[in-house]
Structure formats: structure tokens, C-alpha cells
Write a structure and sequence with these properties.
The structure holds 2 protein chains of 2 kinds.
Chain A (H helix, E strand, L loop, with lengths): L7 E14 L2 E14 L3 E6 L5 H9 L6 E6 L2 E2 L7 E4 L11 H12 L3 H14 L15 H13 L5 E5 L7 H15 L5 E6 L2 H7 L2 E5 L5 E6 L8 H4 L3 H19 L1
Parallel strand pairs in A: 3-8, 3-9, 6-7, 7-8
Antiparallel strand pairs in A: 1-2, 1-4, 4-5, 9-10
Helix pairs in contact in A: 2-3, 2-4, 3-4
Chain B lengths: L17 H33 L2 H4 L2 H14 L1 H32 L2 H16 L6 H8 L3 H25 L3 H9 L4 H38 L5 H10 L3 H29 L5 H4 L1
Helix pairs in contact in B: 3-11, 4-7, 4-9, 4-10, 6-7, 7-9, 8-9, 9-10, 9-11, 10-11
Classes of the chains: A alpha/beta, B mainly alpha.
The structure holds adenosine-5'-triphosphate (ATP) and magnesium ion (MG).
The site of magnesium ion has 4 residues of chain A, from helix 1.
């Protein structure tokens, strides 16, 4: 999978993360290695508790690894950077800011002037379909709306890499489909790199250029390029033999990953 | 996209009658008024019949006393002194308490080392400090201000520190992801998140600012409402004592109102049920 050095954006080498719980060490991720190419859309598939969120936390620079290295753009990751946007699994909107001010927050920190902030946040609010809710506080939104507001906040910083941790898990099937389409539209031609964590096989196949299936402790069970033609329509693909075969293969890989 | 995702909820104008909108508070205020009037009437009626006037006084006498004191200026001289002590004491205690709370709570190790000592100091009845404060600061204004500030400080400090320590780690991480440093974390997360704690501290501290100032005046003073109580009691003037107490509760009510106004402004984002 590794291309020439110029296309390699992210290189993870021998990554291990161990948490301390009382007098025990809890291993969440063991000796994990992966490279991600610039501009690609990688979906990471794995059962609950296999270390997906831990992996993203490490890549985002929120927590230091116990051992191993992460190189982003050839530089070692030592802390968070604004080049990487990370949509965490749980929502972290500031409860005392309304939707608009939440979305503007990264721009506020980056020192973007107020006029431009307002313009950009209006755009993003429309993109995620939250028009009319600008003045609502997070508690006054549904779970899916909070998720979309968080997504808009992340996008407002114009990151070149997106780490998404089960971004659409809380959405209903219809909205999830629309958001997937919207995400692909934003991604295509933007040159952005996406690492998308999910435990939904179909979602992984619909979105990714490449699917990485994780087993326990982040062991890579399968790493497979997905060459289905875009745009991919779930209803058409469901009866496509290539898709059905991939679906079966990923399902097997997930089962195998759960064993050891 | 924006057109596809129809907003799942919409607002409708509510045609609420005056009663639906204000009924509850109208009932509450009516009940309060009825209660106070009934109490005062019962007091007025029973004062001479069931109890000795020397001990219980009666509302009409208290009112007369207030009018008298208002006319000859006694009321305003003493109220002004006490008000100054209360406000200065409250302000001093609140500012130092908030600052110390923020500073110490952001240094967890130092906080852990100091916590037992702080709790021990907090547990000292501040009244017991009055004689010491007289030795240190004399019997002037500053001694009462510091006595008031001593209690206010601990209440505000402990509540602020608790608020800062309970800030959601994930929100802090969110700001780090946005490229924020210590400054942004402090201003955009820790400060707003701990506001609830700060305001709780301010609210519970109000009566203690009054207690501190009045105790100081009771112990050593020839001015202020505490002195007025002492003086009136020494002359068996219970009407005077009650009149002073009325003034003190009015001061407390005004301070309470001020803090809850700040609270309402700062807490707009909270759901209605949590605001009370
Ligand atoms: N702070 C922590 N302290 C101790 N153990 C942790 C901590 N964070 C994660 N773990 C452990 O690490 C393992 C992996 O957790 P992680 O959150 O990465 O799983 P996940 O793959 O994201 O699961 P899910 O799909 O349910 O979100 C789990 O067994 C979890 O108990
Ligand atoms: Mg997770």
C-alpha cells in the first residue's frame, strides 16, 4: 500500500498505548503500524473496544503513546495541530455557546475577523442543515443536530486531514445517507485526507478507498483497497456481486478479529 | 443538501393567555403577601394581649421607630456604615476567593498539599477571630471589613475551586484540538464552566458578609447597625432592635437580587429547570 514518500501523509510505527488503571496496565493498542496516503479516504472498521478511538486520540496528539511513533507530514506528532481536524466520538460543544458561536470557535482562536467568521459559519450551518438553529444552545438540540454542529465546527478550521470517530452513528438512516453524500462531496476534489472510524460494514464500503479491519488490541486483520466505482449508491450496490463479496469478506474479518 | 435536510422541528407562536404566562408567579406573590400580612396582623393583635410589649414589641411600634430614625438621620448614618463594611468585605472576600480558587485549582498538586490546612482554617468560627482582629486592626472599619471578608473568602474560594476542578476534560481537549493554548483554555473553557461554582459561592456568602460586619460591630463599635442593636437592647427598646433587623434583611435581599441578576445573565444557556 505504501506509495512513494511524497504521497505518504501519515506513518504510524509500532504504536502501543497502555493505560494505568489502579495497579494494572490496560493495553488498548499493541504494536500498531499503518501508513495513510495523502488525499485518500480510509475507513477503519472494528468491534467495540478494539482501540479505534484510542488510535485517533493518539494520531490527533491528544494523548502521548506509550511507545512507537506517529509521523504526520514527516514530522513527529507531539501535540494537537489545526491541520488535523478530529471529530471525537462524544460531542464536545461548549454548552454555554449557541450553535453559531460554537461553530465560530476555532476561527475565533485562529484570529479570523468577526465578519469573515459570521460569513463562514452561515455557510457551514447551511451545509449541515441547521438553518434556523443558530441561536440554539446545545441542550436545545437533538443528538443528531449536535453531531452536525460539531462536524461544522471541525470544518470551520479548514483542516487538511479529518479524523472522524463514528460521526454518523447517532443519525437516522435517511439523514446518515445524506450526510455521507455531503461528506463525499466535500472531500472529492478538496485534496483532504479522511480517516473514518465506523463499525458499520456497509458504511465502510460506501465511503472508503481502503478499509482497514481491526481486531483486538488494534491488530490489523485485513487491509484492503476498495475499487468500487463512485458515486456509490447503497441501493444499487446491495445487489452488486463485488460488493456482496466484499461485505462477506469484511464480516469474516470482523469475526476473526474478535477471536484472539 | 441544505434544502434536503428539512429542519425537524419548527416554532409556532404560542397563544398563551396572561394567566398561563404569569399565573404561577401571581399565585406565589399573592400567597407571600397574604402570609406576611397575616403574620404582621397576628403579631400586632397578640402583642399586648398575650405577650409583654417589652419583649415582643409590635409592628406598628417598629414602623414608628423606623420613621423616627429616618427623620433624625440615625437610620442612614448607621445603615451607611454597615453597608460599607458589608460591601467592602463581600467584595474583598469574593475577589480574593475567586482569584485564589482559580490559581490553586489549576495547580492540582499544590491544592492537594494545602487542602487540609485550608479546611482547618475554614472550620474556625470566624466570630472567634474578632478579638484577634481588634488587636491587629483596631476597632475601626477595617476590622469589620476583614471579619466579613474572612468568611466570604472561604466560601467563594471553595466553590470556585470545585467548579474549576470539575471542568469537563473533553471540552479542554476540544480547545486543544482547535489550536488553543493555556490562555484559550482558561478563558474559553475553564472560566465559563466554573461560573456556576463561583456564583454558588457568592450566593451562599451573602449572609456571612452581613454576619461578619454585624458581629464586628456588636463586639466593638459605636457606629453601625450592630451597634444600634446593642444600644437599643441595652435600653430594653425591642422596637429598635426589630427595626434594625428589618433594615439588615432589606440589605440582604438587595444583595441577593444583585447576585441572582448576574446568575440569570450568565446562566442563560442552562435549561430552565436547572436555573432555580
Ligand atoms: N482512559 C482509559 N483508561 C483505561 N482504559 C481505557 C481508557 N481509554 C480506553 N481504554 C480501554 O481501551 C480499550 C479500547 O478503547 P477505545 O475507546 O479505543 O475503543 P473503541 O474501539 O473506540 O470502541 P467503541 O467502538 O466502543 O468506541 C477499551 O478496552 C477501553 O476499556
Ligand atoms: Mg470509540
Amino acid at each position: 500500500m505504501t506509495g512513494p514518500d511524497t504521497t505518504e501523509l501519515l506513518r504510524i510505527d509500532g504504536l502501543t498505548k497502555q493505560f494505568v488503571k489502579d495497579d494494572m496496565g490496560v493495553v488498548a493498542l499493541r504494536d500498531f503500524s499503518l501508513t495513510v496516503e495523502r488525499g485518500s479516504f480510509v475507513t477503519v472498521l472494528g468491534r467495540s473496544g478494539c482501540g479505534k478511538s484510542t488510535l485517533l486520540n493518539l494520531v490527533a496528539g491528544l494523548v502521548p503513546p506509550s511507545s512507537g511513533t506517529i509521523a504526520y507530514n514527516g514530522r513527529n506528532v507531539t501535540g494537537p495541530t489545526t491541520e488535523i481536524g478530529y471529530l471525537t466520538q462524544s460531542d464536545t460543544l461548549m454548552p454555554w455557546r449557541d450553535v453559531r458561536r460554537n461553530i465560530e470557535m476555532p476561527m475565533e482562536i485562529a484570529g479570523v475577523p468577526a465578519r469573515k467568521r459570521a460569513e463562514r459559519s452561515r455557510e457551514l450551518i447551511a451545509t449541515v442543515g441547521l438553518d434556523g438553529f443558530e441561536r440554539h444552545y446545545p441542550r436545545e438540540l437533538s443528538g443528531g443536530m449536535r453531531r452536525r454542529a460539531t462536524l461544522a465546527r471541525m470544518l470551520s478550521a479548514d483542516p487538511e486531514t479529518l479524523l472522524l470517530d463514528e460521526p454518523f452513528g447517532a443519525l437516522d438512516a435517511q439523514l446518515r445517507k445524506e450526510m455521507q453524500t455531503e461528506l463525499l462531496r466535500l472531500w472529492q476534489g478538496s485534496g483532504q485526507t479522511v480517516v473514518f472510524v465506523t463499525h458499520d460494514i456497509e458504511e465502510a464500503l460506501l465511503l472508503g478507498d481502503r478499509v482497514v479491519v481491526l481486531g483486538r488490541l488494534g491488530r490489523i486483520v485485513l487491509d484492503k483497497p476498495i475499487e468500487l466505482a463512485r458515486p456509490r449508491d447503497a441501493d444499487v450496490l446491495r445487489v452488486d456481486p463485488a460488493f456482496v463479496a466484499l461485505h462477506g469478506e469484511l464480516n469474516e474479518a470482523l469475526k476473526e478479529g474478535a477471536k484472539t | 443538501m441544505s434544502t434536503e435536510v428539512a429542519a425537524p422541528s419548527h416554532t409556532v407562536p404560542l397563544e398563551r393567555t396572561w394567566w398561563e404566562r404569569n399565573g404561577r408567579s401571581a399565585v406565589v406573590w399573592t400567597a407571600r403577601t397574604v402570609l406576611i400580612v397575616a403574620l404582621l396582623a397576628a403579631w400586632e393583635w397578640s402583642a399586648e394581649r398575650l405577650f409583654d410589649l417589652t419583649f415582643t414589641s409590635r409592628p406598628s411600634d417598629i414602623l414608628t421607630r423606623l420613621v423616627e430614625w429616618n427623620a433624625d438621620g440615625t437610620l442612614w448614618i448607621h445603615t451607611w456604615i454597615t453597608l460599607q463594611e458589608v460591601l467592602l468585605g463581600f467584595g474583598l472576600g469574593a475577589v480574593t476567593g475567586v482569584l485564589a480558587g482559580f490559581a490553586l485549582a489549576s495547580l492540582p498538586l499544590v491544592y492537594r498539599v494545602l487542602e487540609p490546612f485550608i479546611m482547618a482554617l475554614y472550620a474556625i468560627p470566624k466570630v472567634a477571630l474578632a478579638p484577634l482582629f481588634i488587636i491587629w486592626f483596631g476597632i475601626g472599619l477595617s476590622m469589620k471589613v476583614l471579619l466579613a471578608a474572612a468568611t466570604v473568602f472561604f466560601l467563594v474560594f471553595l466553590n470556585t475551586a470545585a467548579g474549576v476542578r470539575e471542568v469537563d476534560r473533553q471540552l479542554v481537549d476540544a480547545v486543544r484540538l482547535m489550536g488553543g493554548g493555556r490562555r484559550e483554555i482558561a478563558l474559553k473553557v475553564v472560566l465559563p464552566a466554573s461560573m456556576t461554582g463561583v456564583l454558588t459561592g457568592l450566593k451562599v456568602a451573602i449572609p456571612y458578609a452581613l454576619i461578619g460586619a454585624v458581629i464586628g460591630e456588636l463586639v466593638a463599635s459605636n457606629r453601625g447597625l450592630g451597634y444600634l442593636i446593642n444600644d437599643a437592647a441595652a435600653q430594653f427598646d425591642t422596637a429598635g432592635v426589630f427595626a434594625t433587623l428589618v433594615v439588615l434583611s432589606v440589605i440582604a435581599a438587595i444583595l441577593n437580587l444583585g447576585v441572582s441578576m448576574i446568575d440569570r445573565r450568565v446562566g442563560r444557556w442552562k435549561p430552565l429547570e436547572a436555573r432555580r
